[in-house]
Amino acid sequence: MFSRWRKPWTCMTSTRTRSPLAMRVSMRSSRGCGPWRTSRWGPCRRPATRQPNASAFDVRGALHAILGVDLIQIHGLGPSLALKLVGECGTDLSAWPSAKHVTSWLCLAPSNKISGGQVLSSRTRRSSNRAAALLRLAATALGGTQTALGAFYRRLAARIVKAKAVTATARKVVVLFYNALRHGMTYEDPGASYYEERHRRRVLANLRRRAKSLGYTLTEAAPPQGMDVS
Questions:
Q1: pLDDT tier at 177 (50, 70, 90 boundaries)?
Q2: Which terminus of the chain faces fewer neighbouring Cβ atoms within 10 Å, N or C?
Q3: Cα separation of 38 and 35, whole Å?
Q4: pTM score
């Protein structure tokens, strides 16, 4: 039995006259390093190949021809995600009278449990809807973008749990999707700086209103004067 396996074993362990560079290249190829991994000899690179799940046609142009609107204008909705959302929700959204009905159907709206005039719980309902899962993935990807939706996600993630920030951002994306598909809305991203400045103005307006209700006046502090260097 030992002689039966001896030949393959000797072939695998046999040493050949290779240069050190050739041995390093063979070791890197056997490891199967992807573009995100690094080795002792530098970052492993592989040629860009076509994704196995990529569509073989122009999804954006086909959706625009069928729907009459460009859904890819909404940040977070790529061609594949927009195609899947249309497959889940359909092309006619008249079954939902408003965007609030869509968010409730996707379980992205708070489910308030009220007893005796008090809100006992406002957690969202659990759902196995594939469209809701896709929207949450899009919301997570928006967190690293310099867009208004990305700034909204980062502001909520810094203040509350990230899971709630993902749900709130996904709700905003589906509202934009509904308005674009139902009412033909054209979305133009104002940018992260515009959103942050608008949030700052809203916070200042709230502070002025609270100060006025308490009998005070909110004034802007004078900028600190620079120290003279002799």
A1: very high
A2: C
A3: 8
A4: 0.65
Res 71 pLDDT > 60: yes
Crossing angle of the two packed helices 162-183 and 148-159, in degrees rounded to 10: 150
How far is residue 177's CA from residue 135's CA, in Å, rounded to a whole number?
10
131-138: average pLDDT = 88
Helices (H) and strands (E) in the chain, counts: 9, 4
Altogether, the residues listed in the chain come to a count of 230
Q: Is the pLDDT of residue 26 over 70?
A: no
Percent of the chain with pLDDT over 90: 8
**How many C-beta atoms surround the C-beta of residue 206 within 10 A?**
10
Ramachandran angles phi, psi of 206, nearest 5°? -65, -40
Of the candidates 84, 83, 87, 106, the one whose C-alpha atom is nearest the C-alpha of residue 96 is 106
- State phi, psi for 95 to the nearest 5 degrees: -65, -20
- Scan for tokens 């700052």, then name that residue: 200
CA gap 70, 58 in Å, rounded: 13
